[in-house]
Amino acid sequence: MALQTLDIQRRSATTTPSPDVRQNLQTIEVAKLIDVSKCIGCKACQSACMEWNDVRDEIGVNVGVYDNPPDLTADSWTVMRFSEVEVEKDKLEWLIRKDGCMHCADPGCLKACPSPGAIIQYSNGIVDFQEEHCIGCGYCIAGCPFNVPRISKKDNKAYKCTLCSDRVGVGMEPACVKSCPTGALVFGSKEDMIGHATGRIVDLKERGYANAGLYDPQGVGGTHVMYVLQHADQPELYHGLPKNPSISVMVSLWKGVTKPLMSLGLGFVALAGFFHFIKVGPSKEDESEHESEPH
Amino acid sequence: MLNKTRLVARYTAGERMNHWFVAMTFILLALSGLALFHPFFFFLTNLFGGGPWTRILHPFIGVVMFVSFLSLVVKFWSNNFITRADLEWQKHLGEILANTATDLPEVGKYNIGQKYLFWALVVIIPTLVLTGFVIWRPYFAAFFPIPVIRVAVLVHSVAAFIAISAIIVHIYAAIWTSGSIRAMTRGTVSAAWAKHHHAAWYKKVTEENKL
Ligand code: HEM
Ligand code: SF4
């Protein structure tokens, strides 16, 4: 089992209950709160992530902006996204968003994954890939509303932020949170984090950000990584953070009721054939046709 | 008694080998594809050496199947145009399925059911190939935007369902119509079988032989 100390709420491609023995104890839902207004873009969290998880990306090239590496990869599970925007004319704002897995309550990756147990969701809300069960099909990429999972070129397995499930499982906060020098990253129960965000939003509103707010999108059931945004009415400003993310209808059609129905359909077609034969027997030319054959 | 075993040639050795090669690769594709289709079928990955091997092998088998399928399509193409007599024959489908039909219109080399199967596969197999390329990792999927991949994987799974259902019907029809299977294994059918099921074709080949 992935972490003996944590119950599993959901497991990919599994139709029976997951290990859930502590269910009455009500595991506390956790959340990481990313306060974009406090982030200085120092990337300490990016380094801490590499350190703790022991992943090292290729040394890349400067692409002309601060984003480095320029995208999430199988070795870079969190990346700072820098956006220069003018929400009000002539008032430049530098919005820096720490990108990575949002740990959705309703995870599209887990829904899409065909391999039993390659993606699990702990009862505390963390969505974790179990790479030893991953087959490298990339369905999680199609399922994710945030474009987060990446398949490694080295081993063809999917990787993403684990929310440091290994640390959280033993009572520590994620490595990124530990490293943040400004307190832009905080971690705790989801309830406490919403409380903390509320205070921050009051503060931001007082300082002139009338649309400050919490990003905890309900289209994916809420997330276990949340943002405090100065412009919560326009999340797209933050390097295209989706406004109302949800699992794509295409994915729901593909993975919803259609699959069990089609599976039953196949069984039905085969059975129909069998019983047809049992009922009417073979289709056969009659004896007379043999006899009347020309010479 | 001699007449009873008089045989009519139906398939050349090349056609037979081509057919069975497509059949084998199709079954492998159906098994490896279904393995990822629903958890109920995931155990099928064991036939291919585990999940990753199933994922790796499936699209390669797909390409091989497609190429051999094309060669079969070329061989069978001209015998699959639907005729007026076919449509007339179709009206008697209920009696045919109940084994009670008499005085049916004369059928050519293929009946309309076989022709439907042919055209269905002519549409569906290329659909599977095209959508298969879009979702093929690690080689091709990265070239397509995620929304396109979502549509492709949905279409691939529905198309596969239709193809597999159609092939189950095809296999059953071959078993049900006794005397058919030897056409594809030995290349010949009995004259009585030919006359009963494909009278127009029987007349044509016997006339050709007389020349
Ligand atoms: C050139 C032809 C084909 C290509 C390139 C192809 C490719 C793929 C790929 C890339 C996948 C994703 C999983 C994987 O990588 O294994 C897949 C899934 C699948 N394929 Fe194919 N395929 C082809 C033909 C077929 C055919 C002929 C069938 C049916 C007999 C089929 C049935 C399936 C099914 C059922 C799935 C699972 C879909 C799902 O999970 O919803 N494929 N195929
Ligand atoms: S790539 Fe791995 S984790 Fe992603 S859907 Fe496929 S098996 Fe699941």
Report, as a whole number of angstroms, the end-to-end distance of chain B.
Answer: 25 Å
* Spatial order of strands in the largest sheet of chain B: 1-2
Order of helices and strands of chain B: EHHHHHHHEHH
CATH topology of chain B: the name is Fumarate Reductase Cytochrome B subunit
State the total count of DSSP E strands of chain B. Answer: 2
Structural domain count of chain A? 1
Overall number of structural domains of chain B: 1
CATH architecture descriptor text of chain A: 2-Layer Sandwich
Can you tell me the CATH superfamily of chain B?
A: Transmembrane di-heme cytochromes, Chain C
Which fold name is given in CATH as the topology of chain A?
Alpha-Beta Plaits
Order the strands across the largest sheet of chain A as they lie in space: 9-2-11-10
